[in-house]
Amino acid sequence: MTALTLSTSSAAALRADAVVIGVAKGPKGPRIAPGAESVDSAFDGKLAATLETLGASGAEGEVTKLPAPAGVKAAVVVAVGLGEAPEGAAGYDAEALRKAAGVAARTLSGAKKAAFALPATGAAEVEAVGTGALLGAYAFTAYQSKAGAKVPLAEVAITGAKPRDKAHKAAAERAAAVGAEVNRARDLINTPANDLDPKAFAAAVQSAAKEFGLKVEVLDEKALAKGGFGGILGVGRGSATPPRLVRLAYTHAKATRTLAFVGKGITYDSGGISLKPAGHNETMKCDMSGAAAVFAAIVATAKLGLEVNVTGWLALAENMPGGNATRPGDVLTMYSGKTVEVLNTDAEGRLVLGDALARASEESPDAIVDVATLTGAMVLALGDERFGIMSNNDGFRTAVHTAALAEGEDSWPMPLPPALRKTFDSPTADIANMGVRMGGGLIAGLFLKEFVGEGITWAHLDIAGPAFNEGGPAGYTPKGGTGTAVRTLVRLARQAADGDLL
Ligand code: BES
Ligand code: ZN
Ligand code: ZN
User: What is the pLDDT of residues 409-443, one digit of tens each?
Assistant: First the structure.
């Protein structure tokens, strides 16, 4: 894991393998961003001209490496593009800093220590650089033979920061906690389903709960049957590894608000009897990304000691075809007592979440936020970089969207049109688990709404698009599991703690 430190040292004076500086796009070519003055001096003030000669423009994502001159302790200078330089006194946008720090950290894999001399004078900028660097340094190497494996950059030192300043210290602590926890979610998502089944996932939560002093309860298949969790059991019954419902609770003595986070945790989604065709199942180990995000966000909340109560509900099951699997046409009795005709066993997320939402509602939290790789329809609607936000409360939906935006987690508000509710009427049961094809993401949201307790504020994040990056790495986002929604959830917890949410 990459360490994060703050240093008062100048960029040139810090002993490190490399020094990272920012280059912005100016009207007349590349411009060295603040923070790198000492490095520029060592180049006799000609660093911008040198970079331009090397073809640098300051564009976002651009990396230029050059040997450091005498006067710079590090051997290498890594210049990363920040995009357009801000006008006048405005500072650099947090997301531009996160992305640049992330790109730099990734290119420095294998190095021991790097000085990050990006424009970070305020606490918010220190947090952005720290978070971006820790997220960009991530590599998933658990299954690679040691020789060829990528080794993450070991230490990120932010220069020009104030290690004794309360706000700077808190910013670095937030970056370290959130960075490590997003990476924990990524590790879980990237772990193949043959090693991460519901039982193994629950065990991982139990061990973290012990480490961080959280309360944890795991309902196994027997307890689920006794409790009447027909949705979770119905989805899990085709698999050789039975389902689990995990309750993970962080409490603070001074808390006045309680949030419930609910995560879809399908450790593998084959589609079940409504089997997915080849081409649609290769990445389905990622179908537990919602549960991973909830788990990671609660650990981060605990690490930061936020004055809020947060309860996580992880609905864990493997969706497989098998002799005992739920068939299309079967009727399940959900935890809430509602009956559901399963028309398509591939619409399993809403079944496990329906049970978890109903159970979470019994504790009357101030708000529930669920996170799920729920529908392909949401990917068609918003693309693979944005999650959709639905809610039974417009103000809350806006608050969640604003929180996501502040964290640089791309997302968009989506409606829950009442007219679509009747599309999943069933002639046999109370409702069916599928409606019409058009608006499939909204229909899934409306299905979940059926299981949210009367009067409880609720938001639903459909992260099917951004949960798993099938393209190349970009900014601080690696290939594979991204850990999307962790940062939004932690920010919501922080806002609730500060009395700024509900
Ligand atoms: N896990 C999938 C959704 C998904 C798709 C996640 C792409 C990540 C990337 C979900 O369980 C599913 O299969 N949904 C069906 C629902 C349909 C049968 C009503 C879908 O979206 O096609
Ligand atoms: Zn499915
Ligand atoms: Zn699924």
Answer: 999 999 999 999 999 999 999 999 999 999 999 99
Shared domain check, 188 and 155: no
Q: Is the CB of 462 under 6 A from ligand 1?
A: no
Of ligand 1's listed atoms, the one at least distance from the Cα of 375 is 21
Q: Domain check: are 121 and 190 in the same one? A: no
Across 442-458, average pLDDT: 98
Beta-strand pair 309-319/244-250: antiparallel
Which of 346, 385, 433 to probe ligand 1 with, by most ligand atoms within 8 A of CB? 346
User: CB 45: neighbour CB atoms within 10 A?
Assistant: 11
Q: Which residue has the tokens 């649609």?
A: 280
pLDDT tens by residue, 207-258: 999 999 999 999 999 999 999 999 999 999 999 999 999 999 999 999 999 9
Element of type H or E holding 131: helix 123-136
Ligand 2 centroid vs 276 CA: distance in angstroms?
8
Residue with CA nearest ligand 1 atom 5:
376
Answer whether residue 168 is part of any domain: no
Question: pLDDT by residue (tens digit) across 170-209?
Answer: 999 999 999 999 999 999 999 999 999 999 999 999 999 9
pTM of the model: 0.98
Domain with 139 in it? 3-161
Number of structural domains (the chain) is 2
Q: Decide whether any atom of ligand 1 lies within 6 Å of the 377 Cβ.
A: yes
Q: CA nearest 220: which of 232, 238, 204?
A: 232
Q: Which atom of ligand 1 is nearest to the CA of 271?
A: 13
Q: Is residue 412 part of a domain?
A: yes
pLDDT band at 470 (very low <50, low <70, confident <90, very high): very high
Whether 335 and 424 share a structural domain: yes
One domain for residues 112 and 215: no
Catalytic choice (276, 338, 421, 479):
276
* Closest ligand by atom to 344 CA: 1
- Residue 102 maps to a domain: yes
Ligand nearest to the CA of 375: 1
**Beta strands in 112-180, from DSSP E residues, in sequence order:** 113-117, 155-159
